[in-house]
Design a protein that fits this description.
It is built from 2 helices and 4 strands; from the N terminus they run ααββββ. It is about 50% helix and about 5% strand. The chain is α+β, with helices and mostly antiparallel strands. The protein starts with a helix and ends in an 11-residue tail after the last strand.
Length: about 160
């Protein structure tokens, strides 16, 4: 999965670097041409043919690099999500109903200090964490915490 994504991202990143380099070369050539001419009417062709397209290429290269890095980050997040949800080594022998079975069933709610979610105590995201603290069952007492999308604790749990 990772290699196919990276193969599609590399041309975008290389294109961005190439556009930046070509734009820099054009800007330098335009500056050199303008600096050698005394009269404004002789400087305009250098501006029109080198400096302005060079600046446009620099902007285009910067956009390509930003989009390529954004796509690389999105590909990495998708890869990590795939690793998170892929079945474990015993996944092939599980019964058919196991896929729809809840991941965590405990009624006790926990949160991690500074976190934005509350979890069931047997949720894999907080299981074994020493810093997890209990949360009161009332929605007002949760202080704006949202339910975990992995263990999906019910509002009435507690």
């Amino acid at each position: 999965m990772r290699t196919s994504r990276w193969r599609t991202l590399h041309p975008v990143l290389w294109g961005g670097w190439a556009a930046l380099a070509a734009g820099a070369v054009l800007c330098v050539a335009g500056w050199y041409g303008v600096s050698g001419e005394r009269w404004a009417e002789r400087q305009l062709p250098y501006l029109a043919s080198c400096t302005i397209p060079g600046a446009a290429l620099i902007v285009a290269g910067a956009v390509l690099l930003a989009r390529g890095r954004e796509a690389a980050a999105a590909a990495r997040v998708e890869e990590l999500y795939g690793l998170l949800v892929e079945p474990g080594p015993g996944g092939a022998g599980e019964p058919e109903g196991a896929a729809s079975a809840p991941l965590a069933v405990s009624g006790r709610l926990l949160t991690v200090p500074g976190g934005t979610l509350y979890h069931r105590s047997d949720c894999p995201l907080v299981a074994g964490k020493d810093g997890a603290v209990p949360v009161d069952a009332g929605p007002a007492a949760r202080g704006g915490l949202r339910p975990c999308p992995v263990c999906e604790p019910a509002e009435e749990a507690g």
